[in-house]
Automatic annotation (TrEMBL):
GO BP annotations listed: protein import
UniProt-listed InterPro entries: ExbB/TolQ_transport, MotA_ExbB_proton_chnl
Location relative to the cell: Cell membrane; Membrane
Entries under Pfam families matching the protein: MotA_ExbB (PF01618)
Main localization, broad class: membrane
GO cellular component labels: plasma membrane
Protein name, entry field: TonB system transport protein ExbB2
Domain MotA/TolQ/ExbB proton channel: 125-227
Record's keyword terms, sorted: Cell membrane, Membrane, Protein transport, Transmembrane, Transmembrane helix, Transport
Membrane spanning stretches: 43-61, 151-174, 194-216
Membrane topology: Multi-pass membrane protein
Length: 271
């Protein structure tokens, strides 16, 4: 190659002619149009990658949360039903972690009375039944809200990812058509490559959405089962409290560490 020609090509490559030049005016315009298209395609792909990482991260966190909660509730139920009375089981609700223990603690906080209270003292018996029912129901709602954390994100990812991928595909096809128009050729080789690359965004969107929907449905099912177990335990606790006229004497542990409002405050903090 002639050295002069080589140096001229290097000069053009390193310092391209300005867009005001008549020869390069059309190509410069196409480059300016193509660059935002490509950046948007890349942004869509990276957004879907972030969605995928968030999906699997939430799946891991929720799996650990539900597994730990199931183990804690199983241990608490075993010890609770082995207790001799509702009064003696109060210490378990104070010491044991888990959703069932917090529901029981809320129930104890609603019906507990001091040691010196008389059995017919109206000041300590009025509305205990309503208070217990309301306390159990509210604590179950708190536990459900805690378990629902992150599920809305999974539902949003599962429902929007295919459309985000489709948006990237449409944008990529628009960019490909502009490139084909600039090339002046509509052969299969010219069309297939850009169109196929644009369809990748739709495939990625579907690949992200399917696991998100499956994970969401799985943990939604586990949430309903856990809530049903808490409802059953709350009914059993209510029946036991009914046998004791909705009155439970303060346990020494509860008396020293979580009396009255303090016990309710601990329940709210735990939830």
């Amino acid at each position: 190659m002639d050295p002069a020609s080589y140096l001229n090509q290097r000069r053009i490559a390193i310092h391209p002619m300005p867009c005001s030049d008549f020869v390069h005016k059309e190509s410069c315009a196409m480059n300016l149009l193509a660059s935002p298209f490509e950046s948007i395609e890349h942004a869509v792909i990276w957004l879907l990658v972030i969605f995928s990482v968030a999906t699997w991260g939430l799946a891991l966190l929720k799996g650990v949360q539900f597994s730990r909660l199931k183990s804690q509730d199983r241990k608490f139920h075993k010890q609770f039903w082995a207790a001799s009375s509702l009064d003696s089981a109060a210490q378990l609700a104070q010491e044991q972690p888990g959703a069932a223990a917090r529901v029981a603690l809320a129930g104890y906080a609603a019906i507990q009375v001091p040691d010196g209270a008389q059995a017919n003292d109206l000041s300590h018996s009025i509305n205990h039944q309503d208070r217990l029912e309301r306390a159990l129901r509210q604590q179950i709602v708190r536990e459900r809200r805690s378990l629902e954390t992150g599920l809305a994100i999974l539902a949003s990812i599962g429902s929007t990812s295919p459309f985000i991928g489709l948006f990237g595909t449409v944008w990529g096809i628009m960019s490909a058509l502009k490139g084909i128009s600039a090339a002046g050729s509509a052969s299969l080789e010219t069309v297939a490559g850009p169109i196929g690359a644009a369809l990748v965004a739709t495939g990625v969107g579907i690949a992200v959405a399917v696991p998100a929907v499956l994970v969401y449905n799985y943990f939604l099912r586990r949430l309903k089962l856990t809530a049903a177990d808490l409802d059953d335990f709350a009914h059993d606790f209510y029946s036991l409290a009914q046998k004791s006229a909705f009155r439970v004497l303060l346990h020494p542990v509860l008396k020293s560490g979580a009396t009255g409002g303090q016990a309710g405050q601990k329940v709210k903090e735990a939830s």
